[in-house]
Amino acid sequence: MVIDVVMPKMGESIIEGTILEWRKKVGDSIEVDEILLEIGTDKVDSEIPSPVSGKVVKLLAELNDVIEVGRVIAQIDSDKDKRTEEEKASSSTPEKLVEEKQIDTPVAKEGSRKKSSSAQSFSKGKGRFFTSIVRKIATKEGIGFDELNAISGSGSNNRVTKQDILTYIKSKGPKEPLSQTTPKTAGNIVSPGALVDERVEMDHMRKIIAEHMRKSVDSSAHVYVFSEVDMTHIVKYISKNGDQFKEKEGFSLTYTPFIVSGCIQALLNSKDMNSSLEGTTIVRKKNVNIGIAVALGEGLMVPVLSECEKLDFLQLAHKLQDLVKRTREKEISPEELQGSTFTITNFGVFDVISGTPIINQPNVGILGIGTIKKKPVVISTDEGDEIGIRNMMMVSLGFDHRLIDGAEGSKFITSVCQNLINIDLQSLNL
Fold first, then answer.
1. Are 271 and 291 in contact (CB under 8 A)?
2. Pick from 68, 66, 71, 81: which is nearest to 5 by CA?
3. Rounded to an integer, what distance in angstroms lies between the CA atom of residue 341 and that of residue 266?
4. pLDDT at 372
5. Which residue ranges form the domains of the chain, and what is each CATH number?
6. Fewer Cβ close by (within 10 Å): the C or N end of the chain?
7. Helix (H, G, I), strand (E, B) or coil at 105
8. Alpha carbon of 283 to those of 142, 279, 322, 391: distances in Å?
């Protein structure tokens, strides 16, 4: 029986996917849940398992083809009926079948004793599934299970892809010093100091980021305003209560939830900043859904904190911690990467003072957060002005001038800063 495999729906607003890699070719056998191909969307890359066991009879899409959701991309001749008969006729016990499956696992080439150990280690992977190509590369390179299991996967459910393990191997460097070769120039003259340019194709994530950034610059009329906010009281609060918070809640208290909280209040008072544009139509959002830019090794993702206006500070901190953690561990779902109404990016974590981030479409505003630096500041008191050392933070706001004028943008960034300065820390009850 021939089974159609269709382009899966990876999220509510995702209508197509790109074929990144076929793991099987026509004529190959495949087991149920074994990876058939890898696809990429504008949100996330995913490995797609086979829905049935059988033999691949048709691949109906080429690499880099963009295919609509629901369209047939492959056909598998299911051997379900045949397998059922074979299983009925077989006298093997379930334990025997498992044992035989382990023997088939690719193993290292360093003697039969090591082969048995390697096969068992890869098949007992603490719930993680490793595809045959990943296991094959691992055994070829002498990578044991513990080392393989420590590799962060970019596939769905943190699955290690072929590219993940190749990148990991490359990062370890060559096993032996490579012989130095020099390019030859015209006339067979050897130039010892000549350098050769490296040409590397962008990976799928970088291509998507590039496309989105170019589209945003072409769509929105970017304007920026800057301000500086005194974070001394928040710095002191975290310093005093941070250890107790971590012991109680299980994670560190950072500046980010304070910044997000201040931004939420400003958005609730700015109906246009929490909007999007559809042509000449302004769509004012009923909920505050804040996208948080999270840097990854190969790019960045922007998971979304949905319905922030319904969260108290502690709930916000927990949800933020969970969302960022799962994003870095590649466990975020496509649905959690869409629906933002405003975005915050924190380049201060890289010790950068300020920046001009590109608007995350279809938002009309993005807040950039710089690092906190101690600076001498003029402080006004009843007795007059004096100089004090304060913890200051630069804030930048990028907004779409098609909808937001300079006055409204300036009022918004001032509101965010005032919310941070005036935050009632005692009312947080942390």
1. no
2. 71
3. 13
4. 97
5. 1-90 (2.40.50.100), 93-174 (no CATH), 221-428 (3.30.559.10)
6. N
7. coil
8. 56, 10, 29, 38
405 among known catalytic residues: yes
From 4, 33, 65, 401, active-site residue? 401
Beta strands in 134-203 (DSSP E): 184-185, 189-190
Tokens of 302: 């922007």
From the number of C-beta atoms within 10 Å of its C-beta (0-12, 13-18, 19+), residue 378 rates as exposed
Task: Note the pLDDT of residue 96.
Answer: 34
Give the pLDDT of residue 124. Answer: 40
Beta 45-49 vs 29-30: how paired, if at all?
A: unpaired
Please provide the average confidence, as pLDDT, over all residues in the chain: 83
Q: What is the largest CA-CA distance in the chain?
A: 96
Contacts 24+ apart (CB under 8 A), 419-423: 419/261, 419/262, 419/263, 419/265, 419/266, 420/229, 420/231, 420/234, 420/258, 420/259, 420/262, 421/229, 421/230, 421/233, 423/233, 423/234, 423/258, 423/261, 423/262
pTM of the predicted model, to two decimals?
Answer: 0.63
Structure tokens at 187: 């006339």
DSSP 275-317: EEEETTEEEE-SS--EEE-EEETTEEE--EETTGGG--HHHHH
Alpha-carbon torsion 92, 93, 97, 99, what sign? negative
318 is catalytic: no
Cα separation, 47 vs 21, in Å, equals: 9
Question: What's the full length of the chain, in residues?
Answer: 430
Rounded to whole angstroms, how far apart are CA atoms 75 and 30? 12
Give me the amino acid identity at 229.
V
Assess contact for 409 and 299: CB atoms under 8 A: no
Q: Which has more pLDDT, 114 or 355? A: 355
Given 3-state DSSP classes, what are the helix, strand and coil percentages for the chain, each rounded to the nearest 5? 35, 25, 35
Residue 122 has pLDDT above 80, yes or no: no
pLDDT at 198 over 90: no
Mean pLDDT of 257-285: 96
Tens of pLDDT, residue by residue over 322-342, are: 999 999 988 888 889 999 999
State percent of the chain over pLDDT 90: 51
- Tokens (6 digits) for 399: 């907004």
User: Angle 248-251-257 (CA atoms, 0-180°, nearest 5)?
Assistant: 105
Region of poorest pLDDT, from 189-193, 299-303, 324-328? 189-193
